[in-house]
């Protein structure tokens, strides 16, 4: 994986951190001044996003460290660890907001102001834009930490919309509308945490690369001069990258040196692919009936 893609991932995570910090302050201040539990809940969610963004930045930095004597395959799983931190923070934030919202429903809170409605609506659009742009970047780079941030931003945009709806309902006379919206926001936050955790758990179990990536690897390996066929291809996702194990068949009458050179050529060709971090190539002699 290129350093350029690493740089893009880290840049996106840093921008996400700074924007979430700004949103947290604005939402909490406007929520208190505007007497809106839904907006305060949304602000707490953004506060959890700040901590999540810090975890993602640290995770990406750790994942980018090169292999060393104790970690021969690098540190890419630091991304999955950061995702687990994000998931836990979202679940905790969601439970806290839900508790506050239920209390608000029971006591029928005061009517929120127009300021709270304006801030909730204003926060929704940039969050939706960030969710879309980060999802595209995650697909490009294969970073599940960036994808987790995208899911988080999507949930945040939805929670701002729900908060705005609840505030408007309270303004129109439905007294518990604001608190009910806060409860829905809490459930959304917890759902986001579960989704992020599921992705992280899968990453820790060495899943295979997607079909398109495997097809590209197979095609590149098969095109190397001297390769008769690709007899085995196994991949495992390692953070934002992919590790590859290949078996190729070559002319059985080749010398050991010639077969070794073909294996190196396959390795060099495959590792030129954007997401491939490393490849191990084993050479098998072609069957007698495959000889030219």
Automatic annotation (TrEMBL):
User: What species was this sequence derived from?
Assistant: Sulfobacillus acidophilus
Q: What is this protein called?
A: Cation transporter
Work out whether the entry's keyword set contains Transmembrane.
yes
A GO cellular component annotation in the UniProt record: membrane
Q: How does it sit in the membrane?
A: Multi-pass membrane protein
As for subcellular location, the record says:
Membrane
Q: Which controlled-vocabulary keywords does the entry list?
A: Membrane, Transmembrane, Transmembrane helix, Transport
Q: Which family does it belong to?
A: Belongs to the cation diffusion facilitator (CDF) transporter (TC 2.A.4) family.
Is the Transmembrane keyword given for this protein? yes
Q: Name one Pfam family in it.
A: Cation_efflux
Q: Where is the Cation efflux protein transmembrane domain?
A: 17-205
Ranges for domain Cation efflux protein cytoplasmic come to 210-285
Q: Which InterPro entries match?
A: Cation_efflux (IPR002524), Cation_efflux_CTD (IPR027470), Cation_efflux_CTD_sf (IPR036837), Cation_efflux_TM (IPR058533), Cation_efflux_TMD_sf (IPR027469), CDF_Transporter (IPR050291)
Molecular function terms in GO for this entry? monoatomic cation transmembrane transporter activity
What sections of the protein cross the membrane? 12-32, 44-64, 85-108, 114-133, 180-197
């Amino acid at each position: 994986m290129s350093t350029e893609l690493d740089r893009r991932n880290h840049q996106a995570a840093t921008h996400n951190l700074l924007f979430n910090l700004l949103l947290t302050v604005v939402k909490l201040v406007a929520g208190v001044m505007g007497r809106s539990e839904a907006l305060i809940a949304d602000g707490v969610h953004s506060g959890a996003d700040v901590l999540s963004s810090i975890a993602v930045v640290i995770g990406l930095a750790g994942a980018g460290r090169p292999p060393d004597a104790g970690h021969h395959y690098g540190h890419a799983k630091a991304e999955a660890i950061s995702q687990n931190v994000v998931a836990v923070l979202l679940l905790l934030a969601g439970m806290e907001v839900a508790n506050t919202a239920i209390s608000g429903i029971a006591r029928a809170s005061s009517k929120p102001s127009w300021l709270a409605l304006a801030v909730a609506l204003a926060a929704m659009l940039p969050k939706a834009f960030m969710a879309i742009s980060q999802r595209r970047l995650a697909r490009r780079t294969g970073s599940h930490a960036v994808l987790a941030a995208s899911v988080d931003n999507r949930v945040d945009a939805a929670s701002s919309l729900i908060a705005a709806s609840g505030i408007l309902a309270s303004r129109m006379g439905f007294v518990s509308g604001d608190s009910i919206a806060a409860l829905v926001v809490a459930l959304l936050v917890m759902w986001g945490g579960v989704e992020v955790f599921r992705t992280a758990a899968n990453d820790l179990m060495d899943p295979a690369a997607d079909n398109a990536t495997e097809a590209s690897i197979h095609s590149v390996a098969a095109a190397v001069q001297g390769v008769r066929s690709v007899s085995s291809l196994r991949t495992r996702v390692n953070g934002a990258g992919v590790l590859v194990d290949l078996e190729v068949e070559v002319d059985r009458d080749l010398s050991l040196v010639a077969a070794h050179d073909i294996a190196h050529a396959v390795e060099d060709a495959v590792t030129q692919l954007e997401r491939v971090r490393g490849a191990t190539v084993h050479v098998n002699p072609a069957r007698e009936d495959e000889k030219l």
